[in-house]
């Protein structure tokens, strides 16, 4: 009886979201919830985009206003200017995002020193994406399902990082182009007019030129032709032809103009790394869909120790199975649900070329949250009409759980997740505060023997270049890991370093070098101030022990020796004497003997 009253009450509450006034309130609420991001400042890659825009950028790093996501010159950056020594010198990350690049150029032209305005710029794109999603939902649904889907999408906490991290704005701009294309395509197929077909193709192209995630638009266009379009199959296929031409032209340009990634562990090129990509696809696909439909965030995947990842993936799979069981009656009953589900499932594939992360879920959420809203509606109606049937009570309870997850908890988490970029920003600021800023630092090389992660020190040089502050002549770090590191001084100018789990033992560190680019015993990395010699390697090709041979004695005043110490910051490192060693941890070093 209590469940019946609760079900009826919940249905009445959710029906409120059907009104136009409710949609405006939801839009306003979503924008207000992400406004704290205005005060997070710049974070990691933000400095790169702004500095690369400047014509005085070092060593050919300057990029034009339409090509800011072109990252190369790895050999130079490895030599003390932002990349760890194990980075693949021939690696590259080139992303064809001229539309997004231009928005960052606008930031650099009009408010180069105001992160507040840059964040507000991203918030404006977020608001536009919500408006477009609301329009699309109302075109497909005629009940309060559209209103509930609008609420779920607007308050989705996975959108926090794309709106709160300036460098991730591309996901929002790509979504704006893709959603607009879907709206135009629906108008074209439901009301006719070649103008809408042309507009849809143009919007699709703009989305692709903003973010690779906009490929997800093609997933929904395909799903529309299969499940919503009622014309003969020949007409359906012809309606997709303009988008196929746009997608083919984009793919051809992407390939022939030299865009793509190579040698980076965080990306798997489906064409160059086909076997590895196909092996990782099911795992990543489950993680992304489960994260969107439930509480098991894919963001935690990188933080889970490898030994426990099977358990984490199993939990994600079970979550996905329960979610599919919940929405299954809606899939059977509504073509629109099949459309949304197919679009979400296929668009998730676009995010499987890189490490699972919730910031990849904008397109997945468009369909997954719509079908969830329909399932909530159907579960409540079914319980009201057929309370005596098996499983209707369970589905009604799950409907309440889904509302709690995607409305209540999401609304609480959205402002917090919009501040996520502040976390790495704070670590990089602590590293920056730890290194002297007097002019004499420009003549010294900073050497961090052990840091918790490369990103905490890797942005120091570009941060100071952007701010016009004195920067070290070079900045190297020998090991980046939360594990302990054994550091032995084998000669006056040589340190032998052996991390407990080998070098670059986590996915974040393998971003700089994929495992299909292994090191070999005796291999040397020649840098201006030191030479790294690989002494032994792990089974997967990562160095286990390395000798760092410096051009001068380790006691030379030209070196500034530091190490990372929690709760945060670089502190002086006391060099061991020749023949002695120390165990270093990110908490504190201690003597190990000799």
| Total of DSSP H or I helical runs spanning 4+ residues | 22
**Strand line-up of the largest beta sheet:** 8-9-10-7-6-13-14
Distance between the termini: 74 Å
Biggest beta sheet summary = 7 strands, antiparallel
Domain count? 2
Overall pLDDT, averaged?
A: 91
* Strand residue content: 5-15%
Helical coverage, percent range: 40-55%
Rg, alpha carbons: 26 Å
Kindly state the number of beta strands. 14
What is the overall silhouette? elongated
Low-confidence sequence ranges: 589-594
Structural class: alpha+beta
Describe the fold and architecture.
The protein is an alpha+beta fold and 594 residues long. It has 2 domains: 2-39 and 116-420, no CATH class; 423-593, no CATH class. The protein contains 22 helices and 14 strands. The strands form 3 sheets. It has a 7-stranded antiparallel beta sheet, with no helix packed on it. A hairpin with a 2-residue loop joins β6 and β7 (494-499). The longest helix has 26 residues, at 115-140. Residues 589-594 have low confidence and may be disordered.
SSE layout and pairing:
Layout: H1 2-15, H2 20-34, H3 45-52, E1 70-71, H4 74-78, E2 92-94, H5 98-110, H6 115-140, H7 145-154, H8 160-164, H9 169-191, H10 194-208, H11 216-227, H12 233-239, H13 241-256, E3 260-262, H14 274-293, H15 309-333, H16 335-347, H17 362-385, H18 392-417, H19 422-434, E4 445-451, H20 455-458, H21 460-467, E5 474-480, E6 485-491, E7 494-499, H22 507-510, E8 524-526, E9 530-537, E10 543-550, E11 559-564, E12 570-572, E13 581-584, E14 590-593
Parallel strand pairs: 4-5, 4-11
Antiparallel strand pairs: 1-2, 2-3, 6-7, 6-13, 7-10, 8-9, 9-10, 11-12, 13-14
């Amino acid at each position: 009886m209590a469940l019946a009253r609760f079900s009826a009450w919940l249905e009445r509450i959710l029906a409120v979201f059907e009104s136009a006034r409710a949609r405006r309130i939801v839009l306003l609420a979503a924008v207000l919830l992400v406004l704290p991001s205005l005060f997070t400042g710049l974070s990691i890659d933000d400095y790169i985009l702004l500095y690369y825009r400047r014509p005085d950028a070092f060593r050919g790093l300057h990029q034009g206003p339409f090509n800011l996501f072109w990252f190369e010159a790895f050999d130079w950056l490895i030599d003390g200017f932002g990349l760890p020594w194990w980075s693949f010198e021939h690696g590259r990350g080139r992303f064809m995002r001229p539309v997004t690049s231009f928005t960052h150029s606008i930031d650099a032209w009009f408010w180069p020193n105001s992160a507040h305005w840059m964040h507000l710029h991203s918030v404006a794109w977020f608001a536009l994406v919500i408006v477009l999603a609301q329009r699309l939902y109302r075109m497909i649904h005629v009940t309060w399902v559209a209103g509930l889907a609008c609420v779920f999408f607007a308050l989705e906490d996975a959108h926090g990082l794309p709106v709160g991290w300036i460098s991730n704005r591309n996901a929002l701009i790509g979504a704006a182009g893709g959603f607009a294309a879907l709206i135009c395509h629906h108008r074209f197929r439901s009301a006719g007019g070649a103008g809408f077909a042309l507009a849809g193709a143009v919007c699709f192209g703009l989305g692709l030129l903003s973010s690779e995630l906009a490929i997800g638009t093609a997933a929904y266009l395909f799903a529309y032709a299969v499940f919503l379009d009622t014309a003969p199959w020949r007409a359906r296929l012809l309606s997709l032809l303009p988008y196929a031409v746009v997608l083919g032209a984009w793919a051809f340009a992407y390939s022939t103009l030299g865009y793509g990634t190579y040698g980076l562990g965080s990306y798997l090129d489906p064409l160059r790394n086909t076997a590895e990509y196909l092996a990782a696809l099911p795992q990543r696909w489950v993680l992304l869909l489960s994260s969107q439909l439930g509480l098991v965030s894919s963001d935690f995947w990188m933080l889970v120790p490898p030994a426990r990842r099977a358990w984490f993936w199993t939990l994600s799979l079970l979550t996905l199975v329960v979610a599919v069981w919940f929405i299954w009656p809606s899939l059977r009953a509504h073509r629109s649900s099949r459309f949304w589900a197919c679009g979400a499932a296929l668009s998730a594939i676009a995010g499987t070329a890189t490490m699972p992360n919730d910031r990849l879920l904008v397109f997945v959420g468009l369909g997954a949250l719509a079908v969830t809203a329909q399932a909530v509606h159907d579960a409540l109606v079914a319980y009201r009409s057929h309370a005596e049937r098996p499983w209707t009570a369970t589905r009604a309870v799950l409907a309440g759980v889904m509302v709690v997850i995607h409305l209540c908890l999401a609304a609480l988490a959205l402002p917090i997740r919009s501040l996520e970029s502040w976390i790495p920003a704070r670590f990089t600021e602590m590293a920056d505060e730890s290194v002297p800023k007097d002019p004499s630092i420009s003549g010294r090389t900073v050497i961090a023997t052990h840091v918790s992660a490369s990103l905490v020190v890797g942005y120091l040089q570009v941060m100071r270049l952007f701010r016009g502050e004195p920067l070290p002549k070079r900045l190297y770090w020998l090991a980046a890991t939360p594990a302990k590191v054994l550091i032995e001084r084998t000669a006056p100018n040589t340190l032998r370093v052996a991390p407990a789990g080998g070098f670059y033992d986590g996915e974040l560190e393998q971003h700089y070098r994929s495992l299909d680019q292994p090191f070999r015993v005796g291999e040397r990395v020649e840098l201006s101030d030191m030479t790294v010699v690989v002494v032994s390697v792990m089974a997967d090709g990562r160095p286990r022990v390395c000798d760092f041979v410096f051009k001068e004695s380790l006691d030379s005043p030209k070196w500034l020796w530091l190490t990372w110490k929690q709760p945060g910051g670089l502190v002086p490192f006391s060099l061991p004497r020749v023949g002695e060693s120390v165990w270093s941890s990110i908490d504190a070093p201690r003597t190990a003997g000799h």
